[in-house]
Design goal:
- The chain is built from eight helices and five strands, in the order E-H-E-E-E-E-H-H-H-H-H-H-H.
- The chain is an alpha+beta fold and 193 residues long.
- The protein has two domains: 68 residues, no CATH class; 102 residues, no CATH class.
- Strands 1-2-3-4-5 form a five-stranded antiparallel sheet, with no helix packed on it.
- Strand 4 and strand 5 form a beta hairpin.
- Helix 3 crosses helix 6 and helix 4 packs across helix 6.
- The chain is globular and about 50 Å long.
- The N and C termini lie far apart (38 Å).
Length: 193
């Protein structure tokens, strides 16, 4: 089992942002680092300084090159455990839809998005596109919705991406979320969340 280290001071969390997770919101007050602190295999971050067993972390795992990436939907409790049928390819292979374009559009159309750096927006767009393709492969119902006829599949995927991004904003960047609520009451997000 990998060594685990809990960090929960302001200085340690700043170090974590500086070294490993540069766009991590300051709302996160603690983290558990798995493995060596200089090249961790996994990092779980928590909103509470002293996390409860029931708290759902935001998880980052290292790829084969040691680069940390967010684990899709880990903090929302979604997973592929219930999937029985797997799509063999990506959305781009089976449809004319390009998820990365929809992801950029969902982010770019968000009121107050200029408060996030371009790098952070790019990271979120990559995550949304990757999450869409991951779900497409493991969730037959999701894949069926994306493959719907006409523009319906594209529109469904765009709505999912808006929904996922809204949830991330509300959790990771509440100041931007408040700007969305104030500037776009008809945008629909404030009614969902």
């Amino acid at each position: 089992m990998a060594r685990k280290t809990l960090i929960d001071t302001t200085e340690d969390m700043e170090w974590l942002r500086d070294v490993h997770v540069p766009h991590l919101s300051k709302n996160y007050k603690s983290a558990i680092i798995y493995g060596n602190e200089d090249s961790p295999s996994r990092i779980e971050v928590y909103v509470r300084r002293t996390p409860l067993v029931t708290d759902e972390p935001l998880v980052f795992e290292a790829d084969e090159d040691g680069v940390l990436h967010p684990v899709p939907m880990s903090w929302m409790g979604f997973g592929a455990s219930g999937a029985t049928k797997r799509a063999s390819r990506n959305i781009e292979d089976d449809t004319p839809i390009l998820p990365w374009i929809l992801a950029e559009r969902a982010i770019g159309n968000t009121p107050g998005i200029d408060a996030l750096s371009f790098e952070a927006q790019r990271t979120y767009a990559d995550w949304l596109s990757d999450e869409a393709n991951r779900l497409y492969k493991v969730n037959p119902d999701f894949a069926k919705q994306v493959r719907a006829k006409g523009n319906r599949g594209r529109d469904q995927l765009y709505a999912f991406m808006q929904h996922w991004f809204a949830a991330m904003l509300k959790r990771e960047h509440p100041e931007i979320w408040r700007a969305v609520e104030r500037s776009a009451p008809g945008y629909g997000w404030s009614k969902i969340y």
